[in-house]
Amino acid sequence: MKNQDLVEYLRSCGVCEICQLRYLKARGAEYRNINETLQKLDVKLNENVENEELVIPDGIQPSKRARLGVCSTCLGLFSKDFQNELLNSILASDFAKYDCQKIVLAICLPMSLQLRQLAMWFALQRRFGASIDENNPPDVPIKEAVKLILHPIICEKLAKGYDANGLMINIDLTHSLEDEEVEKLVKLNKEAFPAKASHQKRIEISRGLLEKQYQPSKVKAETYEKYFQIPCSNVEESIKLTSIDLQGPLICVAGRYRKLSRELSHTPWILNGQRLMEDSIEEIIIRHVGPHFTEKLGKITFMSSGREDVDVRCLGKGRPFVLEIPNARRTCLTKDEAFAMERAVDASGMVSIHHLQVVPREELTHIKTGEEQKKKFYRALCALHEPVSVKILEQLQISASFNIQQKTPIRVLHRRPLHTRPRTIYSVKARVHRENPKALIIDIVTQAGTYIKELVHGEFGRTTPSLSSIIGKPMDIQALDVVGIDLDWPHEVDNSKQKE
Ligand SMILES: [Zn+2]
């Protein structure tokens, strides 16, 4: 089969030049300069379709298709007119509201295209016989061609890069013949793939099924021809754009927060429909960071590497957190903008954030996994009923790790199941408070998930051993700070130092 013969036959069937190249299996850039590629493939140019006599191969009805202008295989999908319509529709959408450098097109194609691909496959088989493989499509499939042809053109015209995680432009296409053809397709499906037993459920027609099952090795041309023409029927109307829907990318903004207040909950604290605390860490951070990326603050998810109780502060380098922001209008965050957000959060006086930055989505695993293995560093202010003795101080210098058994504390039983969990305490280091001889400041390193208040007082033996049982005296905890979290993520950025 010579390329020239193939192209002449395709032309006679009303196949556009781009689709001719698809049947010549052209790749990437070869679609950009059609004439050059045709010449390279030893195909004579068809410079004036209007006046040229059509070459009508044997057994094919004379056709006006080439003159109608709508390609019988892509239904105009690759025409200049459609490209312009698509571009204009994208520009008329909310596109300008998105400040994203990368885009991705998600085009929902009418099933008619798949049917036409099959019709041409049959036609080529009849025309060129065994040189057309019945298992491998004779063309570059439409879906792939959309990526090779439409994507680069649209990206170039919009001056955007391509990225599967970029702004998604969902494009719905239809064709006036689609309903009619799908109806016929359902009948064809029953005939071509009869259910083997009466109880067997018939497979619903879908694009995936069409792509996989509808090839000459699985559907007979004679069966197909009862419902559809081989080669494809004439069309006068081009493919139509029914809707464009934009979906911004999912952006992840990470940083570390310090909790400076002993009267602030982690997330909105609501009990029996009543708000118990006016604000929360989650809300303060989202309020100042969210609006830069989206109008829908309610869709933002706040996550952190663990959490602290309402009355516990988190100091030191702070706790890593991340905001997951869907359908973001922006993907960038400059150091200036990040620093302004950090200052706005700091102004709350209750939370402070730093190292604010956009991070790749894959890095979220740092926050989501390995929680149990992480070490936590605490500083507790504890009180005895008597002055601290040397013996007590010695008992509370523990450098070798030890295990405790901890029952779910009574205070969290309403939201956590009752279990006894083993936890590792890595070290304990106590010193006497400078101003109060009955008070101890104790630095404790534990496995994540340890309840520190209960580790100190023992909760009537529900945690054993406890610091209280170790010294054999009652001990209360007055205040607790988290002073370190064993997670070196996200990397440190000093947004106050502008490099831009
Ligand atoms: Zn075409």
UniProtKB/TrEMBL annotation:
EC code: 5.4.99.25
Keyword Isomerase annotated: yes
Chain ranges of the Pus10-like C-terminal domain: 253-486
MF GO annotations: RNA binding; tRNA pseudouridine(55) synthase activity
InterPro entries hit by this protein: PsdUridine_synth_cat_dom_sf (IPR020103), Pus10-like (IPR039894), Pus10-like_C (IPR048741), Pus10_N_euk (IPR048742)
SUPFAM superfamilies in the record: Pseudouridine synthase
GO terms, biological process: tRNA pseudouridine synthesis
Domain Pus10 N-terminal eukaryotes stretches: 71-243
Domain of life from the UniProt record: Eukaryota
Enzyme class: isomerase
Keyword DNA-binding: no
Record keywords: Isomerase, tRNA processing
Stored Pfam families: Pus10_C, Pus10_N_euk
Protein family per UniProt: Belongs to the pseudouridine synthase Pus10 family.
Entry protein name: tRNA pseudouridine(55) synthase
Native organism: Drosophila simulans
